[in-house]
Design brief:
Four copies of one chain form a homotetramer.
Chain A: H1 2-9, E1 16-18, E2 25-31, H2 47-63, H3 67-72, E3 80-91, E4 100-110, E5 114-123, E6 126-139, H4 149-156
Antiparallel strand pairs in A: 1-2, 2-4, 3-6, 4-5, 5-6
């Protein structure tokens, strides 16, 4: 109840899933804070991995998939968690403190045990970072798990 | 212009300054992501420092004080940046992945060169973390600077 | 066996416990990397919490207390983890990229359920950061646990 | 002088450059701390980017290239900093708190403005993470700079 109340107060906290010309995609705004920068004056390169992980988490959240339920094993699966298996990253432009960025997340492909996302970070129309991300669901002993039907449906809006 | 456009699309991205019974204060929602947790299952203790720094930055942003302008030395001061001089921290309750937290920031006292804030992090009505934070404006050679009048006015709302 | 081998190859990786005029204390070297700095050019303030947490972990490691064993509940206790309950922090001098710092950790006081440490970060003879840290052992439901005798002995050197 | 003194006290702090069967490479030990893990119990995926950045920085340090000198523009170049342009990452095995890992860094190719590294993170003989990293030297307005001869020589060992 109070979560619902909070969600009303901050309606866009998890970004938005939008449909349209380019297909279904998730958008999340990111503000660049002190913590995200380094002494060069630019955004620290590993901060983009944190930004796009927030995009993935909030995409899944809005689609109805919750990390804590997966870890608790509710839904009939073993306790498990999403892990990243592979990434290709392009650092295209520098970004700086105080800037407003936007993470876009799209599902590219989905197989029995993995899904692949295309994620970009933009400042207005400029793409500053682009990534291809392969995600696997693993049990707590590290073994890949078949994606539950509910997770597949949520991801593909199937 | 595009910043203004983005600000319209994500109206609450920097939280809100609210007035009322308890006095003027800034509220910022924080979602707990993977990056904020550690192997214990709880939020990593140093993550709270990142959370409340975002609260301070967004309070100052909404009040009209921008890190990049200070660093560029616009406004007639030497290039400078806010640094934390002293903190007292109370870690009161654990928080966990996916939870929605709220940072509250209030100005406690202000002197010629420093200001002191009282910051709390809450999950609904429960305070999970509380801090007293003394902030100083320093030039890039590390010397404390007198707070410009515009900064003082912004912080105290005149 | 291979851990032992690795420990031989990198003998000082966990720093050193030294005794002497000032009493028993643990020393850990810290190199300042990109990740530790922010756009101001200085070390990001929350990075010091990571530095001193490494100092605490390596002090406990050399004293024979291991996080993973505590979490696994070996040694007859419930699964538990150390959490920080309270901290007082003084940010005294700026530090910068590439600098070599040293974390010093001393036990101040110890009670049935908590211990308090005094930790400083120095660059040569200059103290750049100082902290008082109160640590509690909690079970995974967040309840404070009595410190096991073996942990007390390790911390106080018997 | 005091840096030299400290370097004597902690001789392996920046790891080691070794030659041999597999060619010239840099090795750096990494201890997994609280800060590196997430609620899944494993090392947080973005932590590997911090680990290999330390490997790159210490490889360059031992080879005689220092971030701060580049940023200060000593050596006849504009003030500049290394930035990552592209990365391919494979997350092969989970790693956990308290484990001892080792980052290996090798130079793959070098061109006028970029160099490419092959970096792996191992726990004993097991490769847990592998990356290909393309690095560019940029001036502070973000423009790629020709690698100075001294930097080229340092990277390739002449």
């Amino acid at each position: 109840v109070s979560e619902a109340g909070a969600a009303l107060s901050w309606p866009d906290l998890a970004g938005r899933i939008v449909a349209g010309e380019g297909g279904r995609r998730h958008l999340l705004p990111i503000r660049v804070y002190y913590e995200d920068t380094d002494f060069s004056g630019f955004v620290y390169h590993a901060s983009y991995l944190r930004f796009i992980e927030r995009g993935r988490s909030d995409f899944l959240r809005l689609a109805g998939v919750h990390h804590r339920e997966l870890l608790a094993g509710t839904g009939g699966t073993k306790p498990c968690a999403f892990v990243v298996r592979r990434m290709s990253l392009d650092f295209l432009k520098p970004a700086r403190i105080d800037e407003l960025l936007e993470v876009e997340t799209r599902v590219d492909t989905i197989t029995q045990a993995t899904f692949e996302l295309r994620q970009t970070v933009r400042r207005d129309a400029t793409v500053v970072f682009a990534a291809t991300v392969q995600v696997v669901l693993v049990s707590l002993d590290g073994r890949p798990q078949r994606l539950p039907g509910s997770v597949r449906d949520a991801i593909t809006a199937g």
